[in-house]
Each structure stands twice: as C-alpha cells, then as structure tokens.
C-alpha cells in the first residue's frame, strides 16, 4: 500500500466493543491512561482527549419495533480529503500525507486551536501543558513501514480493515447490500470523502456524536478558497503595476536639482 491512497473500513455491525483498538492506539503512541469517574456508561473515557485518539462509543438504542440494541462505534479522526483542519492551520503542522491521510507534525504546532474550531467532527484536542493540539495520524510511521495501523492489527473480529480506497468503498457497499434494512455507508460523500469509512447498521442520525452532513465551515471556504487567492492576485497586480511604472517613467522625479531656497525674509 506504500504511496497509494488508502482507506480504513469500520464495520460497526462486527464490533463487539472489546476496545482492543482503543488500547492498542494508546500503547503504540505511548499516551497515558488517566483516572476517570463512572458516568453511567461502559464507555470509558467519556470522550476523545489529548491522550485518547481512538474511542469506542457505547450507545443504547431502541428501534421502531421497540427492540433494544447496543450500538458500538470506533471514533477518531476521519482524515478528510477536503480537511478543514489543514485549510486553517497557519504553521503547516497539519498536512496531507502521500496516503491521503491527515498527518500532524507536533513540532510545528503553535497551539492556536484553529483546527479545533474548524473540524466538523470535533476531533482535535488541546493539551494545555504542552500547548499543542493532538489527534490520530493514522499510524503514519507504521504505514511508511508497510505495517497495519495499531488499531486495525488489534481487531479480533474483522470490524476494522484497510486497503486501497476504491477496493474499500466497494467492499463497504457489498456489505451494506448484504445487511439490508437501514444499513448504509458513511464517509465517502462528505468533505471530499473521508479515509475512515463506516458501515453503519442504522441511519447516521441514530449515532451519538456523528454529524449527518459534515462540511467545511463556509467562513473557511470563503476565506481560504475565494478571498485569499483574490488578495494574492491583487497584491501581485500592485507589484506588477509598480514595476511597469518604473520601466515607463523611470525613478521618481524630485522636481529639481536638489537645492533648497531660503524662504525667509533675510537679505
């Protein structure tokens, strides 16, 4: 898979919430586990954090027939093709890798938190002690070594798989057809397509913390894609105009030979 655009497929219908992916992510990235309090759910910790880049969400759901279901979903960075975080990052800390994923160079992060405000999936997290933003980088170093991401390698049920983009999308739609009902594919049609794609057993709006229509905020599109290029063109026009003026008129005329006349009333 070296040098090719890849996608991780998450089949939520095969997930047993063993949290092997969650633990493997912490171990590989050497992120500490922090003490938490029971908040009425088996889900732990309650949310993503600077030290938790992969989280298995637990959810009770009663369908239209009155059937109680457990829904499990692996949550983390979606690695958008049209990534809002990359668009707004002023330092180049967030960038697209050769695999199509969104990498993070923490040494360049200035802690501005623009990416946190921009992300439609609410993924990046700020670490106050280091003044850095942190998130999943798709195990970029493992990918470069032609190894599976730690989460995928740890999954015992086959809920997580990885491969070339076209093959994974095709696999997702085959699975949805096999499941029938409200099963659907999520992630291939938003923000330019994500590099984490879900097979969901229920409609997207059923799942906690999963936006139904994620998009890059319009303010970011207006500034980065429309206004900023126009401002650069305008700046370039000023420079070109000044250069042409110099060629046609020469250096600025001072209006004399440089001598000054005393305007006082003395003789």
Structure in words:
- It is globular, with a radius of gyration of 27 Å.
- It is 29% helix and 18% strand.
- Strands 8-1-10-9 form a four-stranded mixed sheet. It has a two-stranded antiparallel sheet with strand order 2-3. The chain has a two-stranded antiparallel sheet with strand order 4-5.
- The chain folds into two domains: 6-214, Alpha-Beta Plaits (2-Layer Sandwich), CATH 3.30.70.20; 217-249.
- The protein contains seven helices and ten strands.
- It is an alpha+beta fold and 267 residues long.
Q: Which architecture name of the largest domain does CATH use?
A: 2-Layer Sandwich
> How far is the N terminus from the C terminus?
92 Å
| Structural class category | alpha+beta
Number of strands: 10
CATH domain topology of the largest domain: Alpha-Beta Plaits
What value does the Rg take, in angstroms?
Answer: 27 Å
As laid out across the biggest beta sheet, the strand order is: 8-1-10-9
Q: What is the domain total for the residues? A: 2
Uncertain regions spanning at least 5 consecutive residues: 234-242, 253-267
Task: Note the run of SSEs as H and E.
Answer: EHEEHEEHEEHHEHEEH
Please report the first level of CATH classification, the CATH class of the largest domain.
Alpha Beta
Strand content bin: 15-25%
Report the sheet with the most strands, covering strand number, pairing sense and barrel closure: 4 strands, mixed
Overall average pLDDT: 88
Global geometry: globular
Q: How many H/I helical runs?
A: 7
């Amino acid at each position: 898979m070296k040098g090719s655009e890849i996608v991780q497929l998450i089949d939520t219908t095969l997930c047993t919430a063993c949290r092997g992916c969650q633990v493997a992510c912490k171990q590989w990235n050497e992120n500490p586990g922090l003490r938490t309090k029971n908040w009425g759910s088996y889900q732990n910790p309650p949310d993503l954090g600077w030290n938790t880049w992969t989280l298995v969400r637990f959810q009770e759901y009663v369908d239209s027939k009155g059937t109680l279901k457990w829904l499990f979903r692996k949550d983390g960075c979606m690695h958008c093709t049209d990534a809002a975080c990359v668009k707004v990052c002023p330092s180049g800390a967030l960038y697209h890798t050769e695999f199509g994923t969104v990498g993070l160079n923490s040494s360049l992060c200035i802690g501005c938190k623009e990416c946190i405000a921009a992300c439609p999936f609410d993924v990046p997290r700020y670490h106050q002690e280091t003044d850095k933003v942190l998130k999943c980088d798709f195990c970029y170093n493992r990918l470069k070594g032609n190894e599976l991401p730690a989460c995928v390698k740890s999954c015992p049920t086959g809920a997580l798989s990885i491969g070339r983009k076209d093959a994974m999308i095709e696999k997702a739609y085959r699975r949805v057809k096999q499941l029938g009902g409200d099963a659907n594919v999520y992630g291939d049609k938003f923000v330019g397509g994500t590099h984490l794609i879900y097979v969901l057993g229920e409609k997207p709006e059923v799942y906690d913390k999963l936006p139904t229509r994620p998009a890059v905020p319009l303010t970011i599109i207006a500034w980065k894609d429309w206004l900023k290029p126009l401002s650069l063109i305008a700046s370039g026009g000023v420079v070109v105009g000044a250069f042409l003026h110099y060629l046609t008129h020469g250096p600025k005329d001072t209006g004399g030979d440089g001598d000054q006349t005393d305007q006082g009333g003395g003789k």
